[in-house]
Write a structure and sequence with these properties.
This protein has helices at residues 2-19, 27-42, 55-68, 79-92, 107-121, 128-148, 166-181, 188-200, 223-235, 243-253, 256-260, 266-293, 305-313, 318-322, 324-339, 355-366; strands at residues 208-213, 216-222, 341-343, 346-348. By secondary structure, it is mainly alpha-helical. Helix 3 runs parallel beside helix 16. The strands form two sheets. The chain has a two-stranded antiparallel sheet with strand order 1-2. Strands 3-4 form a two-stranded antiparallel sheet. It has a single domain (2-376), classed as Glycosyltransferase (Alpha/alpha barrel). The longest helix is centred in the C-terminal third of the chain and has 28 residues, at 266-293. Residues 1-22 and 283-322 have low confidence and may be disordered. The two termini are 37 Å apart. Strand 3 (341-343) and strand 4 form a beta hairpin.
Length: 378
């Protein structure tokens, strides 16, 4: 028995060391993140948000960036900035529940991202009144999303639209899941219909289209929307590696270099791409641990040691899939390092929707190993 336990220990230990992830956050990256956060703080206006063409969505991204670094509303560094943003969203919320700063066009984009931000901020402050204000705002925001869903299961650019669009739908689905995780009541049928909408949007090559027609994908697909669609399937709570995800990853993996260096909505693309590669790595990590957990139980007789080793170590594509996030993170980290800019001692990036947008997304990507945002964690 002692010999058997010793051999199992050696086998398990060797696997654990072989597959252990190194610390992804370097000292240089941490310094970059702190400098970028300073840039965001400098450009926040007195009303708590950021002036931009799509101020609601971009302000929500900025707020998420602060939260992703561990800053909390009402206390500590940047606590005032976060509290001002939260109160700004609450103050500008419309009677129908719409979260919209001033006169944003395509309001459901901003509404969805603002709902996501408030869901992540909820409960992070010691201020009970602030938490209650967030709760009430989320309740009204979620009700608006539920009411605005089309018969096909998607959403349009504005609450009253009777058509659907894939990228808007993805935003609402992620917002609903985040709100539900925060304790807000969300009808399960609303989420299920939205999930089916995303699955119905997938072409045979694994890419995801912007619309569906008669229950099938219709129109153009892209790396951006495929990354987004894949991410919300994970965010919706389905962590199994089913055919939809398998085909989606095949599509993305075949174009990995193009994905990293895409010039077609690059920051939008990578806001979602970092999420799916992170969830993918976690899935295979769980598979590996499950196999190891059953190793001792199946360890009879001793002659089976080699076959058990082979079963784990030689699983098709296992190493590539297990290391997927590490590979992705290093590639996008290098790209962001090349593209970063400096202004008055602060770091920033220019995205397709401006500097605040690009900087906020870059922070979310680079800080993702910290896993401080519930919706992005494994």
């Amino acid at each position: 028995m002692k010999l058997k336990a010793f051999i199992v220990f050696i086998v398990c230990s060797s696997f654990s060391m072989a597959w252990a992830e190194e610390d992804l956050l370097t000292e240089k990256t941490i310094e970059t993140l702190e400098s970028a956060i300073q840039y965001l703080a400098k450009h926040q206006n007195q009303d708590g948000y950021w002036n931009a063409e799509y101020s609601t969505a971009i302000s929500a991204f900025a707020g998420l960036a602060f939260l992703s670094m561990g800053y909390q509303p009402s206390s500590g560094p940047y606590g005032d900035e976060l509290e001002k943003l939260i109160l700004g969203f609450v103050r500008f919320q419309k009677e129908n529940g719409l979260l919209s700063l001033e006169n944003d066009d395509r309001r459901m984009y901003g509404h969805g991202y603002a709902t996501l931000f408030l869901s992540q901020a909820y409960g992070q402050s010691y201020d009970r009144e602030l938490n209650e204000a967030i709760h009430q705002a989320l309740h009204k925001a979620v009700n608006l999303i539920v009411r605005s869903q089309t018969q096909e299961g998607g959403w349009g650019y504005n609450p009253s639209d009777d058509f659907h669009e894939g990228s808007v739908t993805i935003v609402q689905l992620q917002a609903l899941r985040a709100a539900r995780d925060a304790g807000i009541k969300v009808p399960i049928e609303t989420i299920e219909r939205a999930i089916q909408f995303v699955k119905n949007s997938q072409y045979a090559d694994g890419s995801i289209s912007y619309q569906i027609k008669y229950g099938k994908p219709d129109g153009a697909s892209s790396l951006a929307l495929t990354s987004a669609g894949m991410s919300v399937l994970y965010n919706a709570g389905d962590y199994t590696f089913d055919k939809t995800k398998e085909k989606g990853f095949q599509y993305l993996d075949l174009q990995f270099d193009h994905l990293i260096h895409t010039d077609n909505f690059p920051f939008y693309t990578h806001f979602y791409a970092f999420q799916i590669y992170k969830h993918r790595g976690a899935y295979y990590d769980d598979v590996f641990k499950h196999i190891l957990a059953g190793l001792a139980h199946r360890f009879l007789p001793y002659a089976n040691i080699y076959s058990l080793y082979a079963e784990v170590n030689l699983a098709p594509g296992y190493e590539k899939k297990f290391r997927a996030f590490r590979t992705y993170y290093r590639a996008i980290e290098q790209k962001l390092e090349t593209d970063k800019k400096s202004s008055s001692g602060s770091t920033y990036w220019t995205g397709e929707a401006g500097d605040i947008y690009g900087t906020a997304i870059a922070i979310l990507i680079l800080s993702s190993p910290l896993e401080l945002l519930p919706i992005f964690s494994d």
